[in-house]
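Page 42, continued from yesterday. The earlier attempt failed because a stray header line got pasted into the input along with the sequence. Redoing it now with the clean sequence only.
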Amino acid sequence: MDRKYAEYLLEKTRQDYNLIAREFSNKREEIWGETRFLFDDYLIFGEKVLDLGCGNGRYFPLFEEKEVDYFGIDNSAELIKIAKEKYPQAKFHIANALNLPFPNNYFDKVYSIAVFHHMPSEEFRIRFLKEVKRVLKPGGLLIILVWNLWRRDILWKMIKYTILKILGKSTLDFKDIFYPWRKICQRYLHCFTKRELKNLVEEVGFKIQELGTTKGTSRYHTNIFLIARK
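This time it went through. Structure tokens are written below.
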């Protein structure tokens, strides 16, 4: 993917989430039950933790249960505004995942829930992971979850954008799609496979601890999760 187009997609994603922030937040009030083990099994009391792409802060109560030193960041000013309204006791900041405002070796764990699939181009995905690695302490954990988009209800979109790419009529990469939020905007998504996610994380120098798929309440709603150590 052309770098300028990737930069455009990053900005588009930021603007899209600012546009839909209130509606999106209302649909993201509850914690996905199938993701709870990522917090119950891995969070340790008193750790310093980054919630990278925290959105409206909906996972903050799980961090609060373990009394961690919590930092939540997102590049959507509107979502951060909502997060601060909901949880004024938490530390939420507007920040760019590709240029994290933290020193080296700062966090015990970095969580990134349903964010990485919005990152366009392999260049920016690698940069994202390198920034996470930079701010993690030696031995720290990355806990990442992306939507599993290899499902029947959006297969036709995969086919459509693949054909356009082959015909030279799309500037997206293979496995990229636009997915609508109602009739308001078309969100950019990359359709990760478990192997692709594993290879990217290992390329940056992480050691994979666990890789799998969560099952949601619907057969269409599954996620890929990965846990890796610096």
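Notes: The chain has a mean pLDDT of 93.
Reminder to self: strip header lines before submitting.
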